[in-house]
# Entry
Amino acid sequence: MQKEINRQHTKENESVKSGKVWLVGAGPSDAGLFTLRGKAVLEQADVVVYDKLVGQGVLGLIPSGTELIPVGKVSGYHPIPQHQINEILLEEALKGKKVVRLKGGDPFVFGRGGEELELLCERGVPFEIVPGITSAISVPAYNGIPVTHRDFCSSLHIITGHTKKSEEAEVDYEALVKVGGTMIFLMGVSAMPKICKGLLEAGMRKDMPAAILERGTTAHQRRVVSDLTNLPRDAEKAGIQTPAIIVVGEVCSLADQFHWAEDRPLGGLKIAVTRPRDRNSTLASMLSDQGAEVVLLPTIETEAILENTGLRENLKEIQKYQWIAFTSPAGVKVFYDEMQKMRMDIRSLNGLKFAAIGTGTKKAIEEKGIFVDLMPDVYSGEALGHALAERLKKEEKEGDRPFLLLPRAKIGTQEVTRPLDEAGISYVDLPVYETIDLEPNDMVFYDETVDYVAFTSASTVRGFTKMYPNIDYSKIEAVCIGEQTAAQARVFDMKISIAERATMESMVDCLLYKKEGERA
Ligand code: SAH
# Structure
């Protein structure tokens, strides 16, 4: 026992010296199918070495600042040969790093995971395996095909349609036909006619149900259900391409009855969410709950203004104000963070009244233990400005001398302040954060497979167009949170839909309505 403990101890010490490799399965594509363990490991990685088949949703979970090494393989063409990938893993680990090797599906199901471990083992580099959900099982499931069913089969075979280089698969079709059961071929798109022929020649029924399932678990997954004789022709007609899996067996006939993924309210739609990273989870999860594939594509980031003496001075004298109005959760956060640094708590805000531009900001204020006194019916800067002007004017008439603090973005729009100026309200416009445009990245990006882009502010539209200066904006279906955002999208000639109310719920409704229209 003691020996065991000692050994583990040395192992831990070694791992500190040499770093460690985690071989992680990313699942078939849908980020919701990525494991909790995988996510936890990814969040601590120093470097991520990833494959072509890893879904954008999973790549989007990699924290910014993590070093990335793409080693993507395209069928028939290996930009980075396997032995080199093995060496990259070793080299990075020997630098003392936490290395995550992220692979599509499960790392050990035709993922060459074993090969990648050999060199690490030889050199004594510690590693862990995080299994993933293999496409062999999940892609049929997302297409309504249970890979086993008591009425139809008693075994399941996962077979490669591709062995080494371009050599034909060495599959013993006769043995397969003899055993029976559901057969799943991975990497078999180009070899499909041969696979079907092989099974037929080995004596399988000509009308055995068979299917090919393309880009499974993504918004644009497609399936062709046919039989062994006609599958090659039907798949060619449909233009099926890799990645796809071939399923042969009675269970394929169940897809007709059990299909579901594309039938969800937003099924079949790929939607890019451009909100800043720290703010995009609500909309993203609401959209994926309705069946959409979500791409997190932050185009801007908010950053607190450093050494903000203006904020500090105003906080010291906060009691000279009667009102504080916030126009974004980012503003609330920076404000309270500074208060904490100055060791002020909510008691120092005693007596002050609070206004919020909309529900998101209201929630952020309430999380700090303060209920909001004013929120406009329409969630826009202009409406907030008018509501404040009206309320403060009234208070003035009643004999008060209301003074308002407006902690917000450095370049705040005049929509809020114009009504205040017109009404002669005294206020201080206090910059607390800046909006920074983000650079495009190679992992998660906009391309023509995106059906809608959700914009939650004019600055996300500007950020998007700066990030992608050379695309045809007139092809973009923009779903905008409100008029101001839409006005910015109009400048770039995008196709526009506007949410009825400026809320995340209303943006989802707007998409549901559009999808409904598409279906009708
Ligand atoms: N380790 C992976 C398989 C890697 S081999 C896993 O467990 O899923 C690559 C093959 O997997 C592709 O050629 C294709 O046959 C299949 N594949 C992977 N992802 C897929 C997807 N989303 N839809 C359809 N087939 C997929």
About this structure: The CA atoms of residues 19 and 96 lie 4 Å apart. Residues 28-29, 53, 104-106, 109-111, 134-136, 139, 186-187, 213, 215-217, 242-245 surround S-adenosyl-L-homocysteine (CB under 6 Å). The chain is about 35% helix and 20% strand. The radius of gyration is 28 Å.
